[in-house]
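User: Hey, quick favor. My workstation is busy. Could you predict this chain's structure for me?
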Amino acid sequence: MSNRGLAELAGHEGIVTSRYKDSVGVWTVGVGHTKPAGPPDPAKDTRTYEVQELIELFRKDVAKYESDVLRAVKVHLTQTQFDALVSFHYNTGGIANAQLTKSLNAKNFKLAGEQFMGWSKPAEIIPRRQKEQKLFQSGVYSNNGMANVYPASSSGAVQWGKGTRIDVLKMLETNASTSPPSNPDNSGVSGPNDGVSSPPRTPSIILAEIRALHEELEEAIR
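Assistant: No problem, here it is.
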């Protein structure tokens, strides 16, 4: 995902600085991190984290969902389409079997965009799904790079009334500017022009471009 995509997803999810129990009683921390994603195990780790630590943990957790999307989708995607699909999958876990994926692989992007709203239960999820749909269809991010940060009680209850709003995008960009590049090719990818510079060409995006080139070659050979 691009930094804007990561910030958008964090804005949908929220960030909790210490462990809490989710809606089904599973110990969780940060941006939806649970034990199956790898260390740390929120059931055992009781400390309060710095937001920057949780953002880095979130980056690692998202990698699996990026890979799932690349595995399921066989057509070329713009950066904003990819970001929208990873956000959708992070929430639903349904990218492999979703009708919108089948439509995408049939190159029916219009129908795929409409089918985001087929995943609209419970009703509280509808605003998020609409934002993902807007990002996929129009290339427009909705959260302005912002996310809410909440503390949790020692018993694992999120203290919703004590939330603060932070600029996650600024944190991501600051961290990226002070870290050595993991990929020397930083030329950007094509996508809708929303008035910002293109995001880095991550390994995930490069893999998607290679797949698209293979498809074009196969069609040319036919």
